[in-house]
Amino acid sequence: MTGTGLLDRYGRRAVDLRVSLTDRCNLRCSYCMPPEGLPWLPKAEILTDEEIVRLVRIAVTLLGVTEVRFTGGEPLLRPGLSAIVTACAQLANRPKLSLTTNGIGLERLASGLKTAGLDRVNVSLDTLDAQRFHEITHRDRLPDVLRGLTAAVDAGLTPVKINTVLLRGVNDDEAPALLTFALKHGYELRFIEQMPLDAQHGWNRSEMITAEEILAALNTSFDLSPDPAERAGAPAETWLVNGGPAKVGVIGSVTRPFCGDCDRTRLTADGQIRNCLFATGETDLRGLLRSGAPDEAIADRWREAMWGKLPGHGIDNPEFLQPARPMSAIGG
After folding, report:
1. In this structure, what DSSP letter does residue 180 have?
2. Which of 65, 160, 234, 329 lies at a C-alpha separation of 20 to 30 Å from 275?
3. Which domains does the chain have, with CATH numbers?
């Protein structure tokens, strides 16, 4: 496989790299981790800024990656974030650079990240109600998130996308209100089905708000029509709102999987490659890095990891096993 991109045996090519910068987070969202938090990865196991940039460079220059998304945990907690973005923006064949964040700290950092070379952001926001925000996240930080959204627009980190998870009996009545809010401010809203990636392993499919339910709720207040634009490998199915041009998306990872068109590869904060969000195995690149391996050897290991990717996540299979790592330790 030397000299090829990140291909798998089903003909998919990974061109979108998700890079987790930390497993730490300043929220405790109930669908991700328990209120008391989790044991964090030891600092010695976390990739250094230089190691992250080197792996991104290998992905871009040797493996054909064209998009890089920085994730966490909460990536804004990474002290070297701006330097990492700057270095990645200076790569030959510069990739598109984005970041997924809970928005806390974005008010302060948005302008500097734009200057460093970040193109845009996705911000997680599950409710517009302060009490519900506390119920979901166990923190009173809704105003910080809203100010972060405004700062992202002001800095030019556009289009600003909002990621929303609806929870039954908690915020499942807010879909129309959230879309109204997004339309008013020019944000692009994406609803995401709750996935079996919580640290508590308490996910229950019968309790999940499905894509069909989300669309039914939105159709009570809006006229939605299928988006004629090509979806390609994008995770969200999109609909035109009231004839467009505004759109709303639904990522139905569980009930409307898009595995056949998946174009993602994932790097964890401790240097492991995951060829699927729901993979039960990982491939270590940190050991190669720290043993002095050349770039091509690292690229070959990465190619091997992606070649073994399964055709789908298998959530519907009776033998499906939830990954041992929660989303906060994998990277969104």
Report:
1. H
2. 160
3. 6-330 (3.20.20.70)
